[in-house]
Each structure stands twice: as structure tokens, then as C-alpha cells.
Amino acid sequence: MWKIKNKEAVSPVIGVILMVAITVVLAAVLYVWVSGFMGGGGQTPTVSLGPATVTKNATLPGWANATWSVVGVSRADIKWDDISYSVSRNGISASGTLGAVHMGDYVKAGHTVFANVTSVSSGDRIDITLVYGPTGGMVGTSFVIVT
After folding, report:
1. Confidence of residue 38 (pLDDT cuts 50, 70, 90)
2. Domain count, the chain
3. Range of the domain at 92
């Protein structure tokens, strides 16, 4: 049989270090668990776009102006500066210009989003996607078929 001469398991310094490490790990786990219950600020808002209208540009052949109106927003604190736009024609990123006609800094119902798209023909599909910068999430999307 083995004979143990020293009956101490660990030194007091090692014991304190182990207790502090366990406490820090438990506090981190508790923080992550509790923060999962707190939603809100980090969520991506939504912007609802109404049906689009398309006008072919009479002076620039192949250009079309697509216009969408904002019909609703999920929060009143969405800034236009936080919204980025992308547009595609038939699933391919399209060249052209994008913009918004609005009054003030915040997105509101009644504002207008537009895209001037090149190389457009009848039957083409023009898609617009709005992205919320702080979260990188999609805010809204819509499309129109050119007639």
C-alpha cells in the first residue's frame, strides 16, 4: 500500500488561483446567458417598400428610372445615413445611380427610393435591396418588371 507523507492537496496560492479562475468563468457564462434575454438595439429594423414605377428615359436610350415609395418602417430611429442600397438587373449587379428623396435624417413613410439603371429592356427585372449598416442586415427589398 502507498504511504502518503504530505497530506496537503495543493498550496494555498494555487487554491486561490483556481477559485478565482472558476469564478471568472462562471461570471462570463452567466453574462452570456443573461445577455441572450436582452434584445433590442442590435436588431435589424425593417422598411416596407410599396410597388415600384418604372419610366424609360426618353433622352438616354436603355436607361430606366425605377421608383419605390416607403410605406412603413418598424422603428422611428432609422437614419438614412445608416442605409445602403444595391440594385440588380436580372440578378446581375447593375450600374447606375441610387438615391432617396426625403425630408430630414430619419426614414419615414412617404419617402421615395429610386434607381436609375442602364441597359434596360422590356421584361427585365430590377431588384433593390436596402441594408442597415450597424447590423449589416437586410432592411427591405423589392423588385419591378420593366414593361
Report:
1. low
2. 1
3. 47-145
pLDDT digits (tens, 9 = 90+) for 82-111: 888 888 888 888 655 556 766 678 888 888
The string of pLDDT tens digits covering residues 60-74 is 888 888 888 899 999
CA distance 108 to 143: 20
Residues near 78 by Cβ (< 8 Å), separated by ≥ 6? 45, 47, 106, 107, 132, 139
For residue 61, give the CATH number of its domain.
2.60.40.10
pTM (two decimals): 0.63
Q: How many Å apart are CA 70 and CA 107, to the nearest integer?
A: 8
Q: How far apart are CA 107 and CA 105, in angstroms?
A: 7
